[in-house]
Amino acid sequence: MPLSPYNRSLVGLGADVRITQRNLPHWTVSTNAAVIYWVTFRLADSIPREKLRTWEQERETWQCAHPQPWDAKTWDEYNELFGDRFEAWLDQGIGSRALARFEVREVVRERILHFDGVRYVIHAAAIMPTHVHALVQPLLQHTVASILKGIKGTSARQANQLLGTAGAFWQDESYDHIVRSNEQLWHYFRYIEENPRKAGLREDEYWLYKKPG
Questions:
Q1: Helix (H, G, I), strand (E, B) or coil at 78
Q2: Domain boundaries, position 50
């Protein structure tokens, strides 16, 4: 399978990588290098509060024993211990499952692709009933944080209007991670492609996108 012309390994770019953290760690790069991010954002009610509290406590204990900055091996350990469990909970489809509704999913789909090729490149994406996965490459001066803020803010307002609801639609925090190698890139491509099938979804419960070519 040919590599996307947009992808280059972070290694060798001379980019300044920063790790920031509120509840979830965020890896960002301060240059306009051709960097691709793996991002996940979820509905506000997609994980029960009690489960999330236990997860946060265990993660805090682990982080105390692993002070930042993290190298690639430590980041992989974090993903194995906490990221994989988080993803499994999302795939259980708990909560309102608002994104399983076509009209709500269509709002989110439109916002994801609205500035594709202008402010960012979407290499692949999946809208699941409770969450969204995407491989996003910011363009020019745009950052992954500003891109997600735009997608989530507009889609939340429109989705709440459709549903006749108010309040938080998305969980405030998003999960973002720099793709550090071609191996990781294809791992995430496969994950996006296989996620709906592994979650046992019908074709009318999700949206799957892979950039042509």
A1: helix
A2: 17-210
Total domains present in the chain = 1
Alpha helix (H) ranges present in the chain?
49-65, 72-78, 84-91, 102-114, 144-163, 182-198
In a domain, residue 160? The reply is: yes
Q: In the numeric block, which tokens belong to residue 122?
A: 């979407």
Q: What's the CA gap between 124 and 109, in Å, rounded?
A: 12
Q: What is the C-alpha to C-alpha distance for residues 129 and 132, in angstroms, rounded to an integer?
A: 8
pTM: 0.74
pLDDT per residue over 30-43, tens digit each? 444 579 999 999 99
Tokens of 129: 């009933």
C-alpha distances out from residue 50 to 53, 56, 70, 175, Å: 5, 10, 28, 20
